[in-house]
């Protein structure tokens, strides 16, 4: 099929994460400012061209002090590295509506290959006649791989911030005019 350009509907899309705090709790957060260049056949993602960019300063964990620390040189260093990006390099169909999307994820000045499990959620027309499609993606990365190594030892053993970051992305996109 023919590839078409798609525009992300940010009002109906999200980029979220969870990470362990103090070895036993989870902190959730999101990034509010992101964009994607998607050229795809929504019925067969295997030939798609996908580039995703996130404005790291848009991080929101519900706590201003924590968010400011995440933006600082201790962690994301948004002054020096304002964007994190993902460029798909391989897309494999794994089942009905299921894909593995592998690509180059860049955080700070480190680029590593990461794989996300992607589910095609369907497509349809909105009340104004626009064609829309939906995807969800899940993945896990190790923050230390990207130079996000700040931590603090706990009196009871262990560390303040977990190593594994679970990522969840929901995309609703419309066919570009």
Q: What pattern of helices and strands is seen along the backbone?
A: EEEEEEHEEEEE
Give the name of the CATH architecture: Beta Barrel
Sheet with most strands = 8 strands, antiparallel, barrel
CATH level-1 class: Mainly Beta
CATH superfamily: Lipid/polyisoprenoid-binding, YceI-like
**CA-atom Rg in angstroms:** 17 Å
Précis, in short:
By secondary structure, the protein is mostly beta strands. The protein has one helix at 64-71; strands at 4-8, 14-21, 25-31, 34-41, 44-55, 59-60, 83-95, 98-107, 110-125, 131-142, 161-175. It has one domain: Lipid/polyisoprenoid-binding, YceI-like (Lipocalin).
Features:
eight-stranded antiparallel β-barrel, 11 strands, single chain, 5% helix, 1 helix, Lipocalin, 177 residues, mainly beta
Describe this structure in words.
With 177 residues, the protein is mostly beta strands. It has a single domain (4-175), classed as Lipid/polyisoprenoid-binding, YceI-like (Lipocalin), CATH 2.40.128.110. The protein is 5% helix and 61% strand. It is built from one helix and eleven strands. The chain has one helix at 64-71; strands at residues 4-8, 14-21, 25-31, 34-41, 44-55, 59-60, 83-95, 98-107, 110-125, 131-142, 161-175. Strands 1-4-5-7-8-9-10-11 form an eight-stranded antiparallel beta barrel. The longest helix is centred in the middle third of the chain and has 8 residues, at 64-71. It is elongated and about 55 Å long. The two termini are 18 Å apart. The relative contact order is 0.22. The model has no long low-confidence stretch (mean pLDDT 94).
